[in-house]
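Tokens as discussed.
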């Protein structure tokens, strides 16, 4: 699927002409959600546009190093006045959060790279051929010939780096590396930003990682690996929900593993599932069968209840997919 507006140029003209813009990204934000939102927001501010950056969860501690991060506000329950609402990196309107839904307003521009995007905006620019929404924002900035300042470039680099697994995932292309080079030229300190992304975890997050490793199970002749996190693990370590970020990727570290999963059981019985694949299994298809979505190599599902049963159902689908692979 590829749904594009008339042109990036016309899209940029509409955004920059607005006197006030609200920029959103998804709940449980990651580096691309924050990086693309701040990259666009800071660029527009340099152009003189009044911008407010919202997220249902506000700013998570692990991303406070991002330039301009103090600009991120928790989405208020009552809708402020804005000329234009832009959502980034968010596949469904529901993932913008309950506070935004209470506004009862339509997203004007929906910019995303998830193939599972439900096209909820008035204008939908969806391109799953790029590895990160930050890449779309970079294309927008360059097409419109807007100045790219070091602060925005730094945020966009974090978005690009984290959603490509530090440029390791299959969707990373020559164009991705060219964009990273452009961000470096614009002033992004790629070495320092990478250190802050990948070598600065809190002791609590490190303790949670240790318990996750203890929960690791492998199946299907060592082609499937999965972790299970329980509420007790968070209580024991003092870790926060955002401290799970990156754990599921480690499930693919063993050379025989083709599919990995992280099952995060919540105290209310709900379940968050993160799925990863090296390429032979399409995790987006599995996630979509349960109402989730994402990319072939990285997808997710949220179940509001029935954690134990849903965990087994997802595992059964992964096992079935692995059995179909040639020996």
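Sequence:
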């Amino acid at each position: 699927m590829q749904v594009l507006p008339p042109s990036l140029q016309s899209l940029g003209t509409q955004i920059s002409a607005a006197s006030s813009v609200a920029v959103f990204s998804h709940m449980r934000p990651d580096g691309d959600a924050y990086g693309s939102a701040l990259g666009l927001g800071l660029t527009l501010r340099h152009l003189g546009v009044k911008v407010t950056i919202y997220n249902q969860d506000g700013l998570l501690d692990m991303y406070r190093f991002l330039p301009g991060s103090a600009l991120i506000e928790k989405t208020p329950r009552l809708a402020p006045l804005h000329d234009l609402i832009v959502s980034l990196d968010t596949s469904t309107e529901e993932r913008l959060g309950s506070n935004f839904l209470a506004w009862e307003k339509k997203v004007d521009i929906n910019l995303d790279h998830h193939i599972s995007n439900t096209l909820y905006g008035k204008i939908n620019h969806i391109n799953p051929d790029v590895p990160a929404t930050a890449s779309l924002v970079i294309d927008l900035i360059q097409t419109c010939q807007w100045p790219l300042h070091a602060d925005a470039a730094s945020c966009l680099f974090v978005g690009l780096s984290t959603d490509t697994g530090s440029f390791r995932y299959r969707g990373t292309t020559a164009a991705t590396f060219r964009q990273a080079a452009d961000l470096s030229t614009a002033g992004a300190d790629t070495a320092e930003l990478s250190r802050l992304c990948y070598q600065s975890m809190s002791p609590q997050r490190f303790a949670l990682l240790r318990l996750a490793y203890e929960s690791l199970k492998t199946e299907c002749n060592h082609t499937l690996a999965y972790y299970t996190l329980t509420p007790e693990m968070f209580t024991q370590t003092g870790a926060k929900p955002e401290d799970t970020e990156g754990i599921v990727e480690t499930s693919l570290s063993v050379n025989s593993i083709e599919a990995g999963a992280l099952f995060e059981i919540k105290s209310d019985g709900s379940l968050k599932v993160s799925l990863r694949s090296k390429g032979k299994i399409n995790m987006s298809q599995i996630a979509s069968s349960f109402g989730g979505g994402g990319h072939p190599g990285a997808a997710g599902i949220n179940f509001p209840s029935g954690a134990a049963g849903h965990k087994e159902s997802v595992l059964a689908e992964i096992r079935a997919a692995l059995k179909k692979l040639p020996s």
